[in-house]
Write a structure and sequence with these properties.
Layout: E1 34-36, E2 65-67, E3 87-89, E4 110-112, E5 133-135, E6 156-158, E7 179-181, E8 202-204, E9 225-227, E10 248-250, H1 255-262, H2 271-282, H3 293-300, E11 303-304, E12 313-314, E13 319-327, E14 331-339, H4 342-345, E15 367-369
Parallel strand pairs: 1-2, 2-3, 3-4, 4-5, 5-6, 6-7, 7-8, 8-9, 9-10
Antiparallel strand pairs: 11-12, 13-14, 14-15
């Protein structure tokens, strides 16, 4: 449709009188460029808001923000009257579809249609060349809407809480995306092409049924937040360590976390290990000349328990314990600690330090960084 339709050319259905009473449904905003009709149980936009009202300094052509949230809309009619609107929110209604004429809103940059009954999007949306932010969470979409791929200026895309089971490989055309949220769908895999979304800062893939994620996620150099919790992930690609700007990584409720945290069993120490621990902890310089060289080498291979209250050592048998510590003052990083006994993981030293004794030879503790969320 070319040009801006005048109010006289717009088809206005014969709506019930009770919906057009001038004293009903007041504008919830005092701003001349906003129309807020929130929580009025409306089934259509009141007819008086489709025409200019000089006495009230109201003109539908001046409306930039249109808020129709928390009503009872099943269909939307007359949107073309508000041809200059740039922000449209129709969340929390009963819309099963958006009208084709939404494509006449050429200035629209933000469309919020959360918590409706949408099953598809109209082809007319491909005319929304200025669209930057699209929120469609909490609907009934069973597939990724193809028309979304035509919105090349899109920066924010929320598709959470739908029934989408696949992500198209050509999502790579949305190169302006900074936020992509797929949480709460039925995704089984993510295409490798997602790694080409070089401006992506926030990626939400939580609450799906993913068993793997592509190694190309490591190419998202600007990624700050990655949500992967509540999936079926058993491994992570090592490329994820390339995400130098990553500040939040959520992995809870995945098999990889369960196996990492809950299956840390202590192998019973051998008689050699138990004897070696006692000798190493009580060895004095005078004893060295009486001990065979191969035994000395074994004793020198001991590792110090990382519990600061414990002076115990271990050789091969150790307890693996995850401790979360502050990292750069920003977020909690899980560290794998190797302890000499299960008692140390509970904070009780297996071999307490004697505060009256002299400091012993320092043995380097072993610790490695792990990513859990």
């Amino acid at each position: 449709m070319s040009g801006t339709p005048s109010t006289s050319s717009v088809f206005l259905p014969a709506w019930p009188t009770r919906r057009t009473d001038a004293n009903m449904y007041p504008n919830g905003s005092q701003k001349l460029d906003e129309l807020v009709l929130h929580d009025y149980n409306l089934e259509e936009i009141p007819i008086r808001y489709h025409v200019e009202q000089p006495d009230e300094q109201y003109d539908p052509q001046n409306i930039r923000k249109l808020d129709l949230t928390h009503n009872s809309f099943v269909v939307l009619r007359g949107l073309q009257t508000f041809s200059n609107v740039s922000f449209l929110d129709v969340s929390f209604n009963s819309l099963s579809a958006l009208p084709e004429e939404i494509g006449t809103l050429r200035n629209l940059t933000t469309l919020i249609a959360r918590n409706n009954l949408l099953e598809h999007l109209p082809k007319g949306m491909q005319l929304l060349e200025n669209m930057e932010h699209l929120y469609l969470s909490g609907n009934r979409l069973e597939y990724f809407p193809p028309v979304v791929l035509t919105l090349r200026k899109l920066k924010t895309l929320h598709l959470g809480g739908n029934y989408i089971d696949s992500c198209p490989s050509n999502i790579s055309v949305l190169t302006s995306l900074t936020v992509l949220y797929f949480g709460g769908n039925r995704l089984r895999e993510i295409p490798a092409s997602i790694g080409t979304l070089e401006n992506l800062e926030n990626l939400g893939l939580c609450d799906n049924i993913l068993e793997t994620i592509p190694s190309t996620l490591g190419d998202l150099n600007w990624l700050e937040t990655l949500s992967l919790h509540n999936n079926k992930l058993r491994t992570l690609p090592t490329d994820i360590l390339n995400l130098r700007r990553l500040q939040q990584l959520s992995l809870r409720n995945n098999p990889l976390v369960h196996s990492f945290v809950h299956n840390m069993d202590l192998c019973p120490p051998s008689l050699k290990e138990l004897t070696g621990r006692i000798v190493r902890q009580n060895m004095t310089p005078e004893m060295v000349e009486y001990i065979p060289t191969d035994i000395i080498e074994y004793l020198n291979s001991a590792c110090q328990c990382v519990n600061p209250e414990c002076k115990g050592v271990y050789f091969d048998a150790r307890v693996e314990h995850v401790k979360f510590v502050d990292f750069c003052g920003k977020y909690r990083v899980p560290l794998m600690q190797f302890l000499c006994s299960a008692r140390c993981s509970a904070g009780i030293p297996s071999v307490p330090y004697d505060t009256s004794s002299e400091s012993e030879e320092e043995i380097e503790p072993i610790m490695r960084r792990v990513l859990l969320g």
